[in-house]
Amino acid sequence: MDQVPGSPQEPRDAHGDDGLPGCYRHTDRPTGIRCTRCEQPICPDCMVSASVGFQCPDCVRDGSGRAAQATAPRTIAGASIAANPRLVTMILLGINIAVFIAAQLTDGRLVVDLFLYGGSVAYGESYRLLTAMFLHQQIPHIAFNMLSLWWLGPPLEAALGRVRFLALYMLAGLGGSALSYLLAAPDQPSLGASGAIFGLLGATAVLLRRLKYDMKPVLILLGLNLVFTFLWPNIAWQAHVGGLVVGAAVAFGMVHAPRDRRTTVQIATCAVALLAIVAVVWVRTLQLVG
């Protein structure tokens, strides 16, 4: 058993006159407190506050304690650093490609059943607001969206963390579907991940501004995409604009949330965005069926 320098004759868990064990570092100090990790006795000078009880300096130093975990590296949005910052992006890519292949194998029937069609949504098929985000009919369409996702996704996923990145992607896509449902003709079908992609583009602009990076490249790219959105035929500009607005707003709440209440603000931001989407859908449904 190791001994503490300066007290060569006293064992680590020595008991004082009052029957309490001595601190493992200061054996002349009786204490009734033990480390919640290793259960060694610790005096007030050695105890480190944890979420439950106290821990000794050794457990904190070697990273096994809660206090050490609190100082672990975090992303700008407060998430843990992931070993693979592309995991969610790759899963989303896989889902989009799998749905595209399935649509081809069903001769487009899957597309008809799942694309965004205002008349169907108004009469109960609200799931189309979600499923339309993963549908593509033509190879150039899915190729452009997936290349954009692969380019924009990993940096955002690394900066926000997996859960926050997924929330951003889904809310941006739903925001695009909601605005398309609100403003497009009820008999105008739409589909594609473009709303979510524009949300990632808006989020990238917000992140670069927060990090004080050069924003010219992303602003130029955003401007060109908006020009094509309004000039190119057969593009649901409502989905692009809706996704862009929601994506930028959610990203702003995530990267600007105060550190002392970061999670609360981020959850509230996502909740407000979702409520806004639900409100838009509700208003449009009343217009169509009311």
From TrEMBL:
<feature type="transmembrane region" description="Helical">
    <location>
        <begin position="215"/>
        <end position="233"/>
    </location>
</feature>
<dbReference type="GO" id="GO:0016020">
    <property type="term" value="C:membrane"/>
</dbReference>
<comment type="similarity">
    <text>Belongs to the peptidase S54 family.</text>
</comment>
<feature type="region of interest" description="Disordered">
    <location>
        <begin position="1"/>
        <end position="23"/>
    </location>
</feature>
<dbReference type="InterPro" id="IPR050925">
    <property type="entry name" value="Rhomboid_protease_S54"/>
</dbReference>
<protein>
    <submittedName>
        <fullName>Rhomboid family intramembrane serine protease</fullName>
    </submittedName>
</protein>
<dbReference type="GO" id="GO:0006508">
    <property type="term" value="P:proteolysis"/>
</dbReference>
<feature type="transmembrane region" description="Helical">
    <location>
        <begin position="190"/>
        <end position="208"/>
    </location>
</feature>
<keyword id="KW-0645">Protease</keyword>
<dbReference type="InterPro" id="IPR035952">
    <property type="entry name" value="Rhomboid-like_sf"/>
</dbReference>
<dbReference type="GO" id="GO:0004252">
    <property type="term" value="F:serine-type endopeptidase activity"/>
</dbReference>
<dbReference type="Pfam" id="PF01694">
    <property type="entry name" value="Rhomboid"/>
</dbReference>
<keyword id="KW-0472">Membrane</keyword>
<dbReference type="InterPro" id="IPR022764">
    <property type="entry name" value="Peptidase_S54_rhomboid_dom"/>
</dbReference>
<feature type="domain" description="Peptidase S54 rhomboid">
    <location>
        <begin position="124"/>
        <end position="255"/>
    </location>
</feature>
<feature type="transmembrane region" description="Helical">
    <location>
        <begin position="239"/>
        <end position="257"/>
    </location>
</feature>
<feature type="transmembrane region" description="Helical">
    <location>
        <begin position="165"/>
        <end position="184"/>
    </location>
</feature>
<feature type="transmembrane region" description="Helical">
    <location>
        <begin position="126"/>
        <end position="153"/>
    </location>
</feature>
<feature type="transmembrane region" description="Helical">
    <location>
        <begin position="264"/>
        <end position="283"/>
    </location>
</feature>
<feature type="transmembrane region" description="Helical">
    <location>
        <begin position="87"/>
        <end position="106"/>
    </location>
</feature>
<keyword id="KW-0378">Hydrolase</keyword>
<keyword id="KW-0812">Transmembrane</keyword>
<keyword id="KW-1133">Transmembrane helix</keyword>
